[in-house]
Design brief:
Number of helices of chain B: 8
Shape of chain B: globular
Number of domains of chain B: 2
Strand order of the largest sheet of chain A: 1-2
Distance between the termini of chain B: 53 Å
Distance between the termini of chain A: 26 Å
Structural class of chain A: mainly alpha
Low-confidence stretches of chain B: none
Order of helices and strands of chain B: HHHHHHHH
Largest sheet of chain B: none
Number of strands of chain A: 2
Helix content of chain A: 55-70%
Structural class of chain B: mainly alpha
Radius of gyration of chain A: 20 Å
Number of domains of chain A: 1
Number of strands of chain B: 0
Helix content of chain B: over 70%
Oligomer: heterodimer
Order of helices and strands of chain A: HHHHEEH
Largest sheet of chain A: 2 strands, antiparallel
Radius of gyration of chain B: 22 Å
Chain lengths: 156, 179
């Protein structure tokens, strides 16, 4: 479809906005509608649009197969890793005692880092797990697109 | 509101019938995309923008593309099939049973429905305090209260993606060098 100038130009114009919207849905998901899954799908659809118009080799230069297939696992690892981190970091209980948190108990991530703003442990935990979901979903959708688009038609 | 709800539901039903009846598969895929967009509009009316997002992006976007990709590999028209009365009866009975089942459900927006009364105090009331001021209850429930479930969900997506790749990448061997 690269020979159609209108499609080519319009695609190039709207892809940044699709990506930007996906990032907005991803990182604003704690405050507005949306979250990791929706953002991942929107992000992947921008890749798919690029692949449809400019061809599979072009999109594989942007998002190489070797990277994307590792991102599938990385997202899940971020999610589960957040859970493990909450078990390892003790939370301060009443009277200065140190309590051990359970898996995915974000209270352990409470912090007092000034430049991170008024983030609480819950904010940080939700942010991290949604990021994990978003990465996994983007990578899975992109890889499924590669798998479908890369097949030769079966003759007969 | 009723002026929007009734046309959307009527169009949903019409599109579903069109998808089932039409023999041209390209047209059927397009109708399925329209069905997804109508479904997304309907979910927006039900105050579920998260689900509407997902429906529009997955249902109308990615699955339409995957269907078209499949058609490019197979064929564009469905083989003509003989009209048979048995599937119609089965579908009719199943549909009637489902409609009968909805009679027991509470009315839409009923304040005494279990979803509004359980748990007490509900997540809507306690979420903002528990989450230190995070306003989105849906995200709070998904990612924090029910964090385990979402972890399982992500694992399901991961497993499904890996399975699809294992099945579909078989004849990509010749392409390996170019990657």
């Amino acid at each position: 479809m690269i020979s159609f100038p209108i499609i080519r130009v319009i695609t190039k114009i709207i892809i940044p906005y699709i990506l930007l919207f996906a990032l907005y849905v991803q990182f604003h998901g704690d405050f507005g509608p949306g979250g990791g899954f929706q953002a991942g799908v929107i992000f992947a659809s921008a890749f798919i649009l690029y692949g449809l118009v400019f061809g599979l080799p072009a999109i594989k230069r942007v998002a190489p197969v070797k990277v994307v297939e590792k991102l599938i696992a990385l997202g899940l690892l971020i999610y589960a890793g957040t859970g493990v981190a909450t078990m390892l970091i003790p939370k301060s209980g009443d009277g200065g005692t140190q309590l051990q948190c359970k898996f995915l108990d974000y209270e352990a991530l409470n912090h007092s880092i000034e430049w991170l703003g008024p983030l609480s442990g819950q904010h940080l935990g939700i942010f991290l797990v949604e990021l994990g979901v978003g990465i996994t979903v983007t990578a899975v959708m992109t890889m499924v697109f590669y798998a479908f688009a890369g097949r030769e038609p079966v003759k007969g | 509101m009723i002026l929007i709800v009734i046309p959307i539901l009527a169009l949903l039903a019409l599109t579903a019938v069109a998808v089932a009846r039409i023999r041209d598969l390209w047209a059927a895929v397009m109708f399925m995309g329209i069905f997804s967009f109508l479904g997304a509009s309907w979910m927006l009316i039900l105050d579920a923008p998260d689900v509407a997002f997902t429906e529009a992006a997955v249902g109308a976007g990615i699955s339409t593309f995957l269907m078209l990709g499949t058609l490019a590999l197979t064929g564009k028209t469905e083989k003509p099939t003989k009209f048979s009365i048995v599937p119609l009866i089965v579908v009719g009975i199943t549909g009637a049973a489902l409609v009968y089942g909805t009679f027991d459900m509470p009315a839409y927006g009923d304040p005494n429905a279990p979803i509004q009364t359980y748990p007490n105090p509900s997540f809507v009331e306690k979420s903002e305090h528990d989450m230190h001021g995070l306003p989105n209850v849906v995200t709070a429930v998904l990612a924090s209260y029910r964090g385990y479930d979402t972890l399982g969900e992500t694992a399901v997506i991961f497993t499904a993606g890996i399975a699809v790749l294992l099945i579909l990448r078989k004849n990509e061997v010749g392409e390996k060098e170019s990657v």
